[in-house]
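Entry for the shared binder. Reason: the reviewer on the internal report wants the predicted structure included alongside the sequence.
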Amino acid sequence: MQTSRQHDGTLVIETLISKKGEWILANVNCTAYCRVNYNPENWQRLLSQLETNPDRIPLMNRAQLIDDAFNLARAKLVNVTLALNSTRFLRKEKAFLPWESAVRNLGYFVLMFDRSEVYGPMQLYLRHQVEELYNFFKNHTDNSTVPENHSLQHNQITAIEVACFSGLLDCIEMATAMFADWMNTNPTNKYGLG
């Protein structure tokens, strides 16, 4: 590996060689405060790994790959398609950090494409991605309980927010039923005092 430091202090790795067809992951477990960009072939290998067996990549790095891809796309250093593709593995992801990274970064695109022809397909994509996560928490949600694990508690909230926002029918029906129940049981609503 050869490194050089640019005049702005950025450390650039000139050469990093992997075995043929294998991916390289830099900043394992995100121990350094930096963005990592890869060549297109390595990005594709990493994204393929995320889709086939994401657990080979540490949890922190799964979140960081999404965050790096979106930030590098906003800086026009990688294609926006690559950033969007970095979220494809989420359909099977249950951990909070990758979802939090994706939701935070996709918020920019949701605002950017609001009221455009891209908005509908984006909601459809999000609905497809979040459905399995929403169903993972369905028993907790339907019974108004939360998981014991703090990280899963946060991800339950994320699942509900994304599922209802994207129009997942189960989520909308659950929210509508819970709101109706609250309206019927809240004494201030019964007497019009609220």
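Summary line for the report: DSSP finds nine helices and two strands in the chain.
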